[in-house]
Structure formats: structure tokens, C-alpha cells
Protein 1
Amino acid sequence: MNHMTRRAVALGGVAALGMPAIARAQTRGITATEIKLGQTQPYSGPASAFGAVGRAEAAFFQMVNDQGGVNGRKINLLSLDDGYSPAKTVELTRRLVEEDQVACIFASLGTAPNTAIVKYLQQKGVPNLFVSSGASRWGNHVELPLCIAGPPSYRVEGHIYAKYILAQKPDAKIAVLWQNDDLGKDYLAGLKDALGDKYDRMVVSASYEVTDATIDSQAITLKNSGANVVLTAATPKFAAQFIRKIHDLDWKPMHFLSNVAISVSSVLRPAGVENAIGIMSAAYFKDPNDPTWKNDAGMATFRAFMAKYLPAGDPGDAAYLTGFGWASMMLQTLKQCGDDLSRENLMRQAAAIKDLEVPVWLPGIKINTAPTQHNPMTQLQLQRWTGTTWELFGGLISAT
């Protein structure tokens, strides 16, 4: 499927529920037969491993269309390649809003790309739904009333790791490799939340830019710090490099890996699956490579979807699975809208999801939003890489 192909999904209108006053205009992106949505994805560039997310979302809506669409309308998703470049994200998002007149932006991917467009979308009154980034700011309903977050926040994830470290290694020295944007900063903030006044004593960190070629020098610096715990707050390309470099340096710390970088196909295999044994992360979705879910009904639905709509895709790549999950949440919002696809009602329904169970999320995780709760997902479960699969341990936990 050509990711530059124009697809579309709908919405319309206005802001309410404490949102900025926006003059009511003709509903954009909606016709009697069509709902038009827009997004940007890194189909190329340093985060291209995440392009599978957008491909899965486009294919999901094609599946919905083949089944009759939503309330008599077909969903068309305009999914454009920004190469994970914020400047390109701005250019393409303006095109989607002003020329293509999409009803809303759905699940554009990346922390830095979304940071570059968020104020513009708020000013234009365009809903920005299920932002495909774990930065904590997307759930701030006061400052960003037209945003709904997607995954659990990186800050919550960092907090959970710090709590586990304190319980297992209270005198640990923690080395953090972090991407120099809101993604990395949120993980550091989560550590600070849990470590408090111990943070400065326990944590040493090194940042990288997404334009860097390698993180070898950062790895050497962090190893030389004497750290015995590592947190990799990185996107797939750099996470794979860091895992391999840690192995090459014969460094054997307790290792935590950001949830956005746990893909077997795009991270662990390039790093060497044996080099990642023992690494821990936090999960909210079912690992498509875990035999635990072999007979799971939700995963059977996902595998059938992949076989029919993305036969060239790797069903073991978690990026496809998460795209399926976000699209499921968008579909629920559209269903709740009924025939009122104004932007006002779109936001109202996106902020009124109750106990939605997504078939590819872990059992017990339910999606809930409210006018003052724009973080749909607040639970995670720890998991450990065995060499062949991610093995869950403990129960669902939150940072609170």
C-alpha cells in the first residue's frame, strides 16, 4: 500500500467542553459517504521502523470500509511521509488541514513532530486524536484541550522503572541514554518523580540527537560511569545500536528498554536477540511473538487482518499491532459520534470512551477518557526478554 496515497476520515466543526471558542463553520472532511482523516508518519528517515504503524492504520480502515464503513460512511486516511522531520511535519500538516481539509489529525507519530504542530492545530481548532507519542503533555486537557493522548506516557513508564529499581537495587547507579526531545526528557522526569532527592546521586545520563549516526561515544561514557543499571530511552534505530554496544563492551547492567523500542524485528534482531536476554520493559499490548497468545481470540483477529490486508508485513512486528490498536480506538470514537461528525462532537466522544477493551491490548487494560482525562491508557505490566519472547511478570501497575 502506497503510504502517500490519499485516504481520508472525517470530522468537523467546533470546540466545546472548556475548549477554545471557535467560530462554527461548515464541517470539513465529511460528506454523506466519506470521513476524511489525516496524519504524518516516518515512512522514511531515522524512525522508519515506525512506518509499520501507519501502514497498519491505513489497512485497518480499509478493512472497516470493506465491512461497510461507519454509520454509512467510508473512512479515508491521508497518511503522508514526514521522514520524522518536524519541519516536514509542519508542512504536511498544513497541507492536510488547509488544502485537503481533513476533519481531524489522527495518530501522527513522533514526539518532536507532534511538538512542532500542536499549537497550530489548537489555533485552527483541529482535533488531534490519539497522538502516537508517549510524551506526557498530550494528556494535558487544560493546555491542550483538542488533544487526546495515545499510549501510556513515557513519564509514567520511567516512574514505574524507578520504583522497581528502588525495590531491587536501592543503591543502584542508573545510566540513561536519552533522545534529546520530549521523549527522553519525560523518562528522566519519571525517574525524578520516583527517586526524589536521590536522583542526582543515582542517575548519570547522556543524550543523542535523532540525526546522529551512532551512540558509541555515549555508550562508552555511560559504562565508564560505573553504572549497574541502564535505561534506554530511545527510538528503535538507536536502541538496537545501544544493546549491541553494551554487549560489545562486556557491560552487564540491569537493563530497561523504552516500550517504543521493544520490536523484535526492528530492534532485537538487528541488535542480536541473544544480546538482549534479560532486558526488561513495560507492556500494554500482547506480544505477537509470545506463544501465550497462540489461541487468544483477539490475536487471532489481528493475525487474520495481517494475512488479508498486509500479507507482506511481519505479523511479529509490534508496530503493526499497535497501529491496529490505535485505529480500533479511533473507530470507537467515530461510532460514538453517530451522524454528528462536527469537531465539537468528535472531541466530546473522544473524551467519553468508557471501558473499551481493545483486542490486542493486555487483558484487564480498559480505555477510559473524560473531559478532564485525556490519557486513555494508564496501566502497564513489566516484561522480560527471554531470547525468544517477551515474558510478562507481575500484574498490571500504574505510577500512582
Note: The chain has two domains: 34-152+295-350, 154-283.
Protein 2
Amino acid sequence: MSIKVGFLAACMVTSLIATSALAADEPGVTPTEIKIGGIFPFSGPASSIGLVGKGVMAYVQSINDRGGINGRRINYIAMDDAYSPPKAVEHARKLVESDEVSFIFSQLGTPGNSATAKYLKAKGVLSIAIVSGSSKFTDIAEYPLTTTGLVSYQTEGRIYAKYLDKALPGAKYAILFQNDDLGKDYVNAFKSFLKGDYEKRVVTAAYEVTEPTVDSQVVNLKSSGAEALFIAGTPKFAAQAIRKAAEIGWKANIIINFPSGSIGGTLKPAGLENSTGVIVGTINKDPTDARWNDDEGVRAFKAFFAKYLQGADFENTSYLTGYMQGMILEGILRQCGDDLSRKNIVKQAKSLSHLVLPTAFPGIEVNTSDSSNMIWGQMQLQRWNGSRWEPFGEVLDASSE
């Protein structure tokens, strides 16, 4: 009997040692904590969407207040790259080599993600739910350790091109785009949809994120006689373009991209009246809209916001995006169970099936797989009526293009 007890005790000790060794072998993972990194433009020209990071941080705090996940608290280290690729690289190196994070979650910005991708891949560090819709990141062979947290700009752009082709058949369109992968993806989406008609129906103007305004580009685009203006950039410049179009009396049909679809971040700075008629695709319910007052998911978000983001601008839906990103992080980690190896984390990140977040627009769900690393693949078009967003049409996806 004593031999059996001794044997069992020895097995238990061996198991504990093995478990400790396993945790020690996985960077950023201990029996009580998992360390995760994030990089956001908390300052600089894209600071409005950098607030996504504040939403993620607040949601992580709520997870920890609930006792963490599987007995582990999340140590989320978020750094500010000011939308500067060199700073993003500097921060990625610190997070990996000094802080020894398990993985990077929700890094925001196409320029920064583009700059850090090669380094993270070489180090074998996962980059999960990146806040970029750049189509290149959906190439699983090239980015095997990455999943994306936005509908790809190619898919989103083709949805807008198809809408305009139906709403304004044969008309000329103007595109104001950020001169990087973000803006160019949207332009390429219009090219792929319009094909041979692109050159005669589309006029474009690019801007650099270092420019103070895009006023001159908007004036030049108006002179083209275009009936529609699509703005593919970030909130600061989208707001400037909407405001300038109103100032010069350009009555164009205006579409903005999802990253600029915030009332507080884009429409208010542009002027709510100036923004009347603006269209955007969305993945989420608008928590400021009274139509969702009795919705359980929106009510939960409002309670969360009051507790963890007190004093912040509720109309800036970048916080909601961060909240939803936090839910995705929680879902992935819960699916991982006690196996927090990088191999299992990326496996679970690519195994999200029919996940419905309570603040997602009805009919929109999360699905990932070995062949699709895009967390979101559907959108609902909506139009600003001067006081709230009015959804119209059906939920669209890649097959609806």
C-alpha cells in the first residue's frame, strides 16, 4: 500500500514538474498569468482609432476582475507607436525580447503591422486579430501566424463599388485614399470590380498621413465632376474631407471606410449636418442608437463602459471595437483550455465557428478556419440621417460582392 502511495505521489510530483516546465517553455505563460502585447496609435494622426486599444485594455481588466481565464490573469502590455512604422518595430522588439510576451494581440494599423510582420514571423510570435484589413494579411501561406480583425479592405471596397454601380450606374466616382497599403487596397478593389471601365469612371487623389489637411485634394476631386466620393483612410482625414466637401458645396454621395465609421471620431469633427447622407459598412450595432436600448448586448456594453471607461467619449465606437476584440481574445483563450502553447493558440484562433458577439449586427458572426484567417467577413451598410445611422439592404459578405 505504501509503495502504491509513494508511486502515486512520485507521479504527481513528476506531473507538476512537467507542467511547470511546459509553462516555462512557453514565453509569457506561468501558472497564474499570460503576458500579451499590443501596439496602438494612442497619439499621432490616427489617435482616434487608437482608442480601440483603450477598449481592449478595459475589457482585459474586466476579465481579470472576474478572476481571469482558467486561473490565469492577463498581463496586457499596450504600447503607443503614434502610427509610425519604425516605432512599431521598436515596440515589437521590446515586447518580444524584453517583456517576453506570449503573442501580440490586436496591433492596430496597416503601416505598423506591415513593418513588424517579418520580424514577428521570424521570431515565431503570433499576431492575432490585427486591426488591419489589408488583403495581404489574409494570405495564410505568407502569414501563417496571423489572423485579421477587420473585413478585408478588398472585400469592403468591392461592396462599396457594387453599391455605387447600382445607385449611380455609369457615373464617375472620386476616391481619396491614404497613400499606403490601406488606401491602395480599396483602390484595387474598385479596379477589380469595374475592370475596363475603371479608368474612365474613377478619379483618385492620394494623401500622406504626415500632411496637415486634405483640403486641396478634395477641391481637385470636385473639379472632376464626380458624383460620388469614397474616402479610404483614417478618421482625422475622413472628417476633414467631409467638412471640406460641404464647405465648397460638393453634393457628392459620400462613402467612408469602416475604420472611419465613428460618430465621435469622424462625423462630429466633420459636423453632423455636413455628414448627412454619409454611408459606411459596419459589423456592429450602434450603441448610441435608441433602437438598441432594450438590446441585452448593448445594455451590457453600456454598463461595461460606465464602469471601465468612465469619462470617455461614448460616441467614439473605437471603444466598442476594442470591447469586441476583447471578447474575441477571451473566446480564444477559453478554447485553449490549459494548453497555452503558441501552436494551440493559433490553432484556436483559426477555429472560431459561428461565434456571435452580443454587440455584432444581427446576422453577422465570427468564423475562422485553416483556410480563412479573417475574423469578420460580413458587413451591413448604413446611412447617416443627421442624428443616427439608418441600416439599409441585407448583410453582405464576400459572396455578395
Note: The radius of gyration is 23 Å.
Protein 3
Amino acid sequence: MNRREFIGGAAALAVTGCVGDKTALRRPAADGLIKCLYMQLGQHMWRGPMDTFGGKVRGDKNAPYDEGARWVAEHWDRLQFDNGSWRRIVEYAAKRGFNAIQLDLAEGVKYPSHPELAVSDSWSAERLRDEVRRLADMGIELIPSLNFSAAHDIWLGEYSRMISTRKYYQVCADLIGDVCEICATPRVMSIGYDEESPRLQRNQAFCVCRQGDLWWHDLYWFVNEVEKRGVRAQMAADYAWGHKEEFLKRAPRSVLQTNWYYGAEFDPKKMVHPEYLLTYDELEKAGFDQMPGGGNDSSTTNIGDTVRYCKKVISPERLKGFQVSIWRSTLPEHEQRHFDAIDQLAETGI
């Protein structure tokens, strides 16, 4: 399946597949909007050993990442994920009409090709297969996510310091292949690719950032690696905030775009950064398929208002669904925020 076959989106969202043991997988219906909850299996995407080598934390208490670095140092060697919370949240999402869960895998899986990336209690490949099958039986498809942004790839371990090298490409190709096989050739797979900028890495001791043609070269490489396995790539669209014309011209139309906006203000004239919101409009004008993203991290009204805004500015044939996130780990102390986000999207009636 080539990139051309993905254009239009609807056909791409009708791909079926089999799990690794050849047992038929009953996929949820592909007609209608995707109602997706983003969740985290792994946590090595936000801060990592560049701030915590030797278990030490920087002494600057005013550093924005200092608290996170301390947390990572204390929990680095085990999975920060609660199985009971996972089951309760997923079951509640299914009850409220959700038909997809996007799961950020990171160090949370013992990848067959690179088991060295796992921590002590990472899921086995068979455990992930079983979850894909169990969710499908509940009417939920699992959309896997491997974030390959240089700002969120600490889960790649030493390979995160080998960006754009021959070894890096081989490892990333191996991991994409593992996930596509384990997850039964998913219809969509997220490659993240967000927030890769010098500004957002300014407080890290070790910074890696692709720019210009190298950023684009690697994006095309990742998209091709996903697409050649019969899967549609999804990415975050925030690069468009600072490079609008370039992004709209060069981004592949085959990629499902997710612009994330979390604010309570939906009048661009009142916003300091209206591009955060208006990217929905620009992507629509340029003909991209979208799955807009919102959340309740900073506003309890954002999710509902995101749905209302995007249904006005995005044509039905290009609006593939909505994705919500609380940007918290899958632990008991965050369950209620997950439930609230689920309710906020469900109550829009989409």
C-alpha cells in the first residue's frame, strides 16, 4: 500500500488485519468518527537520564524540569502504570461510546527486536497482543504510539543520542515493525514528532534537535516505514505553528494530523498565540485529514469547545475523529481526571 492510497482517509481507516498468531481480529466499525482517549503505558518520554545520571538531580529549584527529573530518578527502572486503573478507564471509555484508545508505548513493551529498552515490568509482546484482542472485543481499537520526536525519545535509551545515524534508522525500523506485527497491522499508528525545538530543550543537559531539511528527511523516513507496512501514520501538527507555509506545502497529505489545543479561549483575536487554534483552519484549507486533540489539563471546557469549533471549520470528509488527553500517567490518582475527560467528549454527542 503506497501513500497515494491513503489520500482521502476513509479507505485507510478500513484496513483489517490479523494478530501475530493468525487469530482473526474483530475490528470496530470504521464508519463514523474516531472517539479516542490518549493514555500512557510508558513514561520515558518527558524527562530522563540526561537530567538524572547517577540518580542526581540538578540543584536549581527554579528549573522547570527539576521536579520531573527527581520523579524520573526515583522511578526510572520500573513501569509507572497500574493495571487496575487501565482496565477501569478503558471499560468506562467503552461504556461512554469511545471506540479507540491511543496508547503511548515507550519503555512499556519488551520489544522482540530490542528488549534492552524495557524496564523490569514492561509488557511482553504477547501481553500487548492480548490487550489488542481484548479491546477489540469491547468495540475499541488500540492505536499504538511511538514518539520519535527528539524531545520525547528518551525511551530509546542510548539510541536517542544517535539521531539520524544508520544505527538509529535500523533500530526505529525494527521497533515500528515489532509494533505493527504485535498490534495486528493497526489502521493508524502515531509517530508523535512534536515539540522538537531548541527552546523546548533549553533546560536539558543534553539537547538534540533536527532542523530544516533533516527534520523533513526523517519525517518522510518515518512515514514511509509506517506506510509500507499497510498502516496510516499520525503525527502532531505543532511544527505548523512556527513554520506554517513550509508545513502546509511539505507535509505528506497521507498523514493524519492532530493539532493539540488545550485553552479555554476560542476567539483568535483574544489570543496571544492564535496559531495554536487557527492551525485547524489552515490544515483544512490545505486538504489534510484531521483528528483534533484537546484535553482537560488546563481547562474543563476545552474538549467540548474543541468539538464545536472543529465541526464548524473542518469538512466532514476530512474530520476523522477527536482525541482527548489528560497528559497524566495511568495511575489511580489520575483516574478521575481520565473519567472527566471521557465524560466531556461523550457529552458532545459526536
Note: The radius of gyration is 19 Å.
